[in-house]
Specification:
four-stranded mixed sheet; Ribosomal Protein S8, Chain: A, domain 1; 2 domains; 7 strands; alpha+beta; 150 residues; binds zinc ion; globular
């Protein structure tokens, strides 16, 4: 995936979460898209570590003006992917992230052309190309709509 941000100081692409590797700038990067992907299972974290990672990204992303986060967490009835998914669902359903997250859609509920799919696209038309990934519903992903300064 292309880096979603640009450095305001030198114009090079740079990641959302880190300083610029080109000029060392710590200024908040400029977003090139209002939608970012976050892979919570990269590096094989525990469920708790994955939720910590999400907390940090949510703070930074909402400061930078991100509107949508596509979470990749994997799935399964057992194994690390499943644990991250269920911990995430549990946290969302208990409003753990409600200060930043306005609304959320579990991947299995937004199958192509379903009611939830259309509702989501009405809110965020820019998601159309991302939602192709969901086809019959994608139990390994969750969509977070961020609130605040929309
Ligand atoms: Zn820079």
């Amino acid at each position: 995936m292309a880096l979603p941000c640009e450095c305001p100081d030198c114009g090079n692409p740079r990641p959302l979460m880190h300083h610029c590797q080109h000029c060392g700038s710590e200024t908040l990067p400029v977003l090139l898209s209002d939608t970012i992907e976050l892979n919570l299972k990269r590096g094989g974290p525990s469920a708790e570590e994955a939720l910590d990672r999400l907390t940090h990204h949510l703070r930074r992303a909402s400061e930078a003006g991100v509107k949508v986060i596509l979470l990749i967490h994997g799935y399964g009835s057992s194994g690390e992917g499943g644990r991250i998914k269920w911990a995430l669902h549990d946290a969302l359903e208990n409003n753990y992230f409600s200060d930043r997250v306005d609304q959320y859609y579990f991947g299995e509920d937004v199958a192509y052309a379903s009611d939830a799919y259309h509702a989501l696209l009405r809110r965020r038309p820019s998601l159309k190309r991302h939602l192709k990934l969901f086809k019959e519903g994608n139990a390994g992903m969750t969509v977070l709509l961020l609130g605040g300064n929309s």
